[in-house]
Amino acid sequence: MQNLWSDIDAQDFIRRYEAKGVGEDLALRVYTSRLIGGNPELVAHGGGNTSVKTILPDFLGEETEVLCVKGSGWDLGNIEPQGLPAVRMAQLSAVRSRDTLSDEDMVAFQRSNLLDPTAPNPSIETLLHAYLPHKFVDHSHATAILSLVDQPDGMALVQKVLGSKIAVVPYVMAGFQLAKVTADVFEANPEVEGIVLHKHGLFTFGESAKQSYDRMITFVSKAEDFISAAKPFSPAKANMPARLASASDIAPILRGAAALEASERGDHGRWIMDYRTSDAVRTFVDGAALCDYGARGVITPDHIIRLKNRPLIVPAPDAENLAAFKDAVQAAVTAFKEDYSRYYAENSGGKGTTRLDTAPRVVLVPGVGLFGMGKSRKEASVAADLAEASIDCVSNAERIGTFEALTEAELFDMEYWSLEQAKLGKGGEKPLQRQVAVITGGGGAIGAATAKLMAENGAEVVVLDLDQSKAAATADEIGGHAMALACDVTDAASIEAAFDKVCAQFGGVDIVVSNAGAAWQGEIGTLDDAILRKSFELNFFAHQNVAKCAVKVMKAQGTGGALLFNASKQAVNPGKNFGAYGVPKAATLFLSRQYALEYGAIGIRVGAVNADRIRSGLLTDDMIKDRSTARGLTEGDYLAGNLLGREVTAYDVAQAFLHQALAQATTANVTTVDGGNISAALR
Ligand code: ZN
Question: 7-228 architecture in CATH?
Answer without folding.
Answer: 3-Layer(aba) Sandwich (3.40)
